[in-house]
Every structure is written in C-alpha cells, then in structure tokens.
C-alpha cells in the first residue's frame, strides 16, 4: 500500500503515521451511519478463535497462529524477506508493501474473511508519553472474478426485511449460480419496535421455514403459523424434542437445511437503535444454504423465535419473506445541449451489486469538443428548457459528505473519498484534449443504493474554457423490460386556491419476482402565483392514509387536509405504546428507517423547502405497489420551521407519460413557450403535465410550420392527449381537461388560434381541381414530346 497521490512527500507521511492493518469482524455500515463513526461500525479485529489480545507477541516476532486471523500487521510485518519489497522508511515503519504468504487467512469456510472489513490505523501522537492508535481509513472486502480483471465476482443477494414486532434487515449473499459456495448471512440490525420492550434480548433461535408468511405475522395468537415447518428438503431424520443432539454445526453432524440456530448460533435483538450496531449486528457463514439451483431458499421465510413470550402467541416472534435484491444499474445516455450544437454521443453506465460492493463506472463518450470536467449534479434535467444544464436548474456537484473541493488533490491523484462524490473527472481524470473516451473504473464512493444514491440526478459535461456547461443527461435506471418495470407516481399541487404549487414525483423499480428498489423522490414546490418568490424552510411531510378533496384549499388550518386522516402506518409500528412521541422520535431516523411509520417521510429523509431549489431524495421504505402502496393516498405538507399545522396536500396518483408529434402552422413572431402557455391555459393543466422535448423542435416547409414532440403526463395523460387533439383540430375546448373540486375558472379561454400544418407546404400556390387536371395533362404532353425528340436524336447519332 502507498499514499493515494503516490508522490514522495505523501508516501513518507503515510509510512511515518501508519500503525497497523486489521481485518474487522464486520463490514462498515454503508447506509445511515454518521461518517465520523463509519469505520468504527466494522467492529474489532476479526478473532474467531478468541485469542487473548493482551498476551500477543510484538508484530513480526511470533508465528502466525499466535495472532488473531484479522491481525495482518502482527502476522506479516517483516515476514517476506525473500520477496522484493520497496519500503519508504525501511525497518522503521509499520507499512506493508509487496507480496506476503499467510497460512491463517481463509477465503472460504466458517472463518472466511470474505465480506468483512479492512481497517488501517494511524498513530495518535497528541500525547507523546502515551501514543495510541486511531482508525485512519477503512473499506469492504469483496471477491473478484478470477478470470476478469477488475470485475467483481457476480453474486446472488437475498434480502429479508422485518417490520413487526421487530424491525431489521438481513442480507444473504452467495456466488451467482453456484449453490455449493459459502453463503454469507449479515444481520444489519434487529430492534424491538412495537413499543413494549426496550431491553436487549438474546438467545433467539432462527430458522428457514417452508412457506412465505401470510397476514398472521402480526397475530396476537398463533403468530407466523402460515410459514409451515422448518425447511427440510432432504428429509433428514431428527429428534423433534432435541434436534440439537444431531445438529451441532460440527463436521459430521446432520441438520435440516433450515435449522440455522443449531449450526450457526442464536441471535440478539437490541432494545433501542442506540445499541443496535454493537449488540445485534452479526455475520455468519454457512456452507449449505443455496440461494440458487435445486432446493434454494428464495421465496421461503425466515422465522425468529422467542422462547419466553406469551403462550397464546406461541414461540414464533417474527417472520418475513426471503426476497431478492438485484444489482442496480444506472445510465446517462439521453444528452441535452446547453444552447450549442450537440455533438456528444455515448453513455456513462454505473453498476453496483449491493451497497457493500464497489460501483463499476463505464465511460464511453464520442464527439467531445474542447471539454474538460464531467460531474454528477444534484437534480435531473428539465427537458423543456432552452438551457437545461444551467446552475439555476441542476445546481452544483452532488456532494452529500461536504468535501471541500479546494482541499482535493489534482485530478486522478487522490483516493475517491478525497473528492466530491459527484466529481468524476477529479477521481479519474479530465477530458482534456480528448475527442472520445472509453474507460472502466471502480468507484468506492458512487452509490446506487441508499440515501446518497446518484440515481435520479444528472451528468454534466463542461467546456474547458471558463468551465462552461456544455451537455447534460439525467441518470436513469437501467433495466430490461423482461427483468423489471418502473412504477411512477405524482402528487400534483395545482389547485388554484391551494397553498403550494408544484409537484412531488416518485419512481420505483419492481422486479419480476415482486422485489422493490428504493423509491426516488423529486420535489419541486413553489408558492402559488407567477411572481411569488417567497421561500420557507423546514416543512415536515408525511403520507396520510386517505386521499383529500376540497379540504385541500380551505382557509382554516384546523380543517385543512382533514380528509387525509392520519399518518400511514401499515406495519403497526410502536403499536403497544402509540402515544409515546418521545420514544418514537428517539428510535425513528435515517439510521433506522424501518422503525418509522411508512408514511413519515420527513423522519427518514428530512424536511423540504417551498420556493427554494428542487430536491431529490432516496427512500428505502416507501412502496408504490403491492399489498401496501402509497398510491391512492395523499401527501400532507406541514407549516414552515417544523410547524405541526397542515399547510398543503395533494393525492398520490399514477404518473403516465404519453408522447405525441404535432405539426402546427407558424404564425408571425411565434414563440414555443407562448404556445405552450396558451395551450395550458385553455386546457387548464399545469406546466409539468404538458411539456415538450426542446431538442426535437424544428421548422418545416421553409419556416412555415413547426414540429414538436409533446409529453402528456400525470394521472389523466390519456385524456389530456385526446383533449389536445380536439383543441388543435377544432380550435375549441369547452371544458377544462382536469377537474378541480370546488373550483371553476371563469376567466378561462375556450378557443385557440393555432392550426394544424398538413403534409403539403402551405406556401405552395393553391390550384383548382380542374386546373390541376389540365396542368397534369399539359405536363404529360410535354414529357411525351421531350421523349420523342430524345428518341429521334438517338436514332440520328446511331446512323451517323
């Protein structure tokens, strides 16, 4: 190892300060962890044989079995004198450099280091009399494909989410299409969540059962009986009263496939989120738990037991289905020009298997022209703008960790954590003097999972001169229609008498097996009125159980949005103590999203602003389809500065997108923006439900006509398309396209002066049908004479 920039000064600083290298028991927590405690979440040095750490030999002075499996410095320092090594401070540093042999570092089996963490420590010399070690940096350990350079090993990943009466998340990972390989089981956290227990509990049995759970996962009596018996596809004989006598986890023992507690150990459940990471987070490795092939466990259930619970409930505490978590793929390929001629083509493609893996970045660009930087920016591209890449709409680089770009090294000279998360040209090099670029990179900080995901944001390519923005593209999900489909929903705040104007858009990917991705949320909210520039901050927002109606626009705050009911809580979170608001605020948060009510978005993602910038969020717990769906309910926005008063609300409805080509005659002084505004006024629709693709607008017939691609969006997209065709065809629309309860626009125009442009050039002179026939006969006669003269001349030349 060496310093990221690899210059002499940095390498000497690294060699002087590095203290030790350790493999940790757990991987660092990638989602919802405060960055100051990110590396600490990996736990202590991996020590499966429980060696006494107080009597270890000094590094390099003992044999390898005398150190913990994860103590790399102790086992390897000064160990490879026969190998060629280049040390920056020979004999006076803890640095490791070169190739080493380690006979106590298993990559498979129950003590495997795979999917754990790697931690680098540095010396803390703040007190010269007491020099200690602090964590310097850390990362995940992942497997790479043996035959493909830089390519991670394809993995099958299963996910189990517990919602009641405990909350938690479990991941199971195995090499793809190889059921004989080890399966890694990672319990990210398990927390009591019904409000009845705040104490830690331990000794919980757990097993894979035959069937997915039904609705009895929250029963007070006979809980989780729908899951059936423990999964036993090989029909192993066992003693029902004492199965632990035949299943011990040691070689030669006989276990049912689903009997996990006897061969791996029992579980711990934390009483609060404060202790979840240190108490309930665990990692197991099992050699007989297939995620693919015959007798795989996908679609079955994981049941956690409680042997000390009420007899009426039974010994089953919680259960949940074993579902799939597929890799995430994002792509930016639909490029928009920022007012100049667009020559760029190609794509930026990102692939990440899970939040514990690196992101593979494929850059394939052609048609570059005097460019330099390219970055991820904060929001998606607005397609109807003439200059869609400007700072006024896409804002700055995506930088959720607040990295100071002035402190970043030169491009391609540092590690990825030293740059802004979205600074791709800083991490991997600029586009200077390139006309095309085709490269592949591994990025440890370009997430496609969790709160910091770049999906739904944008890529901007800059010019070298003045760093001007040249082209941009939205980062969209990449998927095959045979694998998944994207669900889109919108909460449209367009009531003229309402108190907010704009929209909240939601998208989610649903795989063919029903598994769901994170939900991407875009908010774009202003105050009503074209010239209203008021801004307010810190509005809480929640999903309520029912849709709203005319109550969305009443003046009295106490009765506004009352039809929405109450916060959506389909999993009965904190059911045993629902009025304990202090306990709820203490336990619910970004680092424990399943502990929040599903409808309490602001508790997971934070508040929103009105009248300020657009915002993009990623929510891991907001389903748009299935037994519990947010579609058909309402979003309620509360007052500024965390007020509890209901301020504005709108229903969550399906968001369709219909595309239509239209050719219209171009009158004098024609402006596309004015045309759209006139159409929206007559149809009575907001601008986000009727827009154009600014790249595809072009003139026809020598400037006599204009061709546009129009997008009709929202829950009434089909009706909008029909009404638009009727309006353009006849020039009149008697009723608005969108019904707004309790509102009639008496100033609405019913007619439109624009006309459809036909296939013929309107500049051509009109000819009466009779004259047209005569003209046709005359032209045919002239053609006959020309052909006859041509034939005569040909004959003359042939004779001569």
TrEMBL record:
The segment(s) forming the Superoxide dismutase copper/zinc binding domain are 344-468
InterPro entries per UniProt: Cu-only_SOD, SOD-like_Cu/Zn_dom_sf, SOD_Cu_Zn_dom
A Gene Ontology BP annotation from the UniProt entry: superoxide metabolic process
Q: Where are the transmembrane segments?
A: none
Task: Give the top-rank taxon of the lineage listed in the UniProt record for this protein.
Answer: Eukaryota
Q: Which PANTHER family match?
A: AGAP001623-PA (PTHR20910), SUPEROXIDE DISMUTASE COPPER_ZINC BINDING DOMAIN-CONTAINING PROTEIN (PTHR20910:SF1)
The name this protein carries in UniProt is: Superoxide dismutase copper/zinc binding domain-containing protein
State the species of origin.
Answer: Lutzomyia longipalpis
Tell me the lineage of the source organism. Answer: Eukaryota, Metazoa, Ecdysozoa, Arthropoda, Hexapoda
């Amino acid at each position: 190892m060496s310093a990221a920039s690899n210059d002499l000064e940095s390498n000497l600083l690294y060699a002087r300060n590095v203290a030790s290298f350790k493999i940790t028991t757990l991987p660092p927590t990638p989602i919802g962890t405060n960055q100051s405690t990110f590396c600490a979440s990996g736990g202590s040095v991996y020590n499966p044989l429980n060696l006494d750490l107080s009597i270890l030999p000094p590094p390099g002075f003992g044999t390898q079995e005398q150190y913990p499996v994860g103590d790399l410095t102790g086992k390897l320092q000064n160990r490879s004198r026969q190998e060629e090594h280049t040390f920056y401070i020979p004999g006076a540093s803890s640095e490791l450099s070169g190739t080493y042999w380690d006979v106590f570092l298993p990559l498979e089996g129950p003590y495997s280091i795979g999917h754990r963490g790697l931690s680098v420590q540095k010396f803390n010399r703040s007190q010269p009399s007491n020099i200690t070690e602090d964590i310097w940096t850390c990362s995940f350990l992942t497997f790479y494909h043996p035959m493909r350079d830089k390519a991670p090993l394809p993995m099958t990943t299963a996910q189990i989410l517990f919602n009641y009466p405990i909350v938690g998340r479990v991941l199971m990972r195995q090499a793809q299409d190889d059921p004989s390989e080890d399966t890694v089981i990672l319990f990210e956290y398990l927390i009591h969540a019904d409000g009845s227990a705040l104490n830690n509990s331990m000794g919980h049995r757990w097993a894979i059962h035959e069937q997915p759970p039904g609705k009895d996962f929250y029963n007070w009596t006979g809980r989780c009986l729908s899951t059936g018996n423990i999964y036993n596809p090989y029909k192993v004989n066992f003693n029902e009263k004492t199965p632990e006598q035949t299943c011990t986890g040691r070689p030669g023992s006989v276990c049912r496939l689903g009997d996990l507690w006897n061969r791996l150990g029992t579980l711990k459940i934390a009483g609060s989120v404060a202790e979840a990471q240190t108490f309930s987070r665990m990692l197991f490795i099992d050699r007989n738990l297939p995620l693919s092939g015959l007798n795989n466990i996908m679609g079955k259930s994981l049941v956690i037991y409680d042997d000390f619970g009420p007899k009426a409930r039974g010994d089953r505490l919680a259960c949940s289905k074993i579902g799939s978590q597929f890799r995430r793929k994002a792509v930016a390929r639909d490029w928009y020009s920022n007012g100049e001629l667009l020559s760029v083509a190609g794509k930026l493609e990102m692939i990440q298997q899970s939040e514990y893996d690196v992101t593979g970045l494929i850059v394939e660009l052609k048609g570059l022209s005097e460019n330099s930087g390219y970055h991820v920016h904060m929001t998606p591209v607005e397609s109807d703008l003439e200059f869609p890449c400007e700072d006024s709409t896409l804002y700055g680089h995506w930088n959720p960790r607040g990295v100071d770009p002035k402190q970043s090294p030169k491009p391609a000279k540092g590690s990825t954590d030293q740059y802004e998360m979205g600074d791709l040209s800083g991490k991997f090099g600029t586009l200077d003097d390139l006309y095309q670029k085709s490269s592949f990179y591994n990025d440890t900080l370009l997430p496609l999972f969790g709160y910091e995901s770049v999906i739904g944001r944008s890529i901007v390519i800059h010019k070298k001169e003045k760093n001007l923005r040249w082209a941009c593209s939205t980062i969209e999900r990449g998927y095959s229609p045979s694998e998944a489909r994207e669900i889109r929903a919108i909460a449209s705040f367009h009531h003229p008498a309402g108190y907010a104007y704009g929209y909240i858009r939601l998208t989610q990917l649903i795989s063919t097996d029903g598994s769901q991705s994170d939900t991407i949320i875009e908010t774009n909210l202003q105050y009503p009125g074209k010239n209203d520039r008021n801004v307010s901050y810190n509005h809480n927002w929640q999903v309520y159980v029912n849709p709203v109606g005319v109550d969305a626009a009443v003046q009295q705050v106490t009765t506004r949005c009352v039809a929405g009911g109450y916060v959506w809580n389909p999993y009965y979170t904190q059911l045993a103590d629902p009025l304990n608001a202090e306990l709820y605020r203490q336990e619910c948060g970004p680092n424990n999203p399943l502990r929040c009510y599903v409808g309490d978005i602001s508790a997971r993602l934070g508040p929103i602003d009105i009248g300020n910038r657009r915002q993009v969020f990623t929510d891991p717990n907001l389903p748009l389809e299935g037994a519990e769906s947010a579609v058909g309910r309402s979003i309620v926005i509360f007052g500024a500065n965390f007020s509890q008063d209901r301020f504005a609300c709108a229903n969550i409805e399906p968001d369709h997108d219909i595309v239509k080509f239209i050719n219209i005659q171009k009158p004098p002084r024609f402006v596309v923006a004015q045309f759209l505004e006139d159409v929206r006024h007559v149809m009575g629709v907001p601008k986000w439900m009727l827009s154009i693709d600014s790249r595809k607008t072009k003139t026809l017939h020598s400037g006599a006509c204009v061709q546009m691609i129009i997008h009709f969006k929202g829950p009434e997209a089909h009706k909008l398309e029909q009404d638009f065709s009727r309006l353009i065809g006849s020039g009149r629309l008697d009723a608005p396209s969108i019904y707004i309860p309790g509102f009639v626009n008496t100033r609405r125009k019913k007619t439109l002066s624009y006309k459809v442009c036909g296939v013929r050039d309107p500049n051509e002179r009109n000819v009466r049908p009779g004259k047209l026939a005569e003209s046709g006969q005359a032209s045919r006669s002239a053609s006959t004479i020309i052909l006859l003269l041509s034939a005569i001349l040909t004959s003359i030349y042939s004779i001569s």
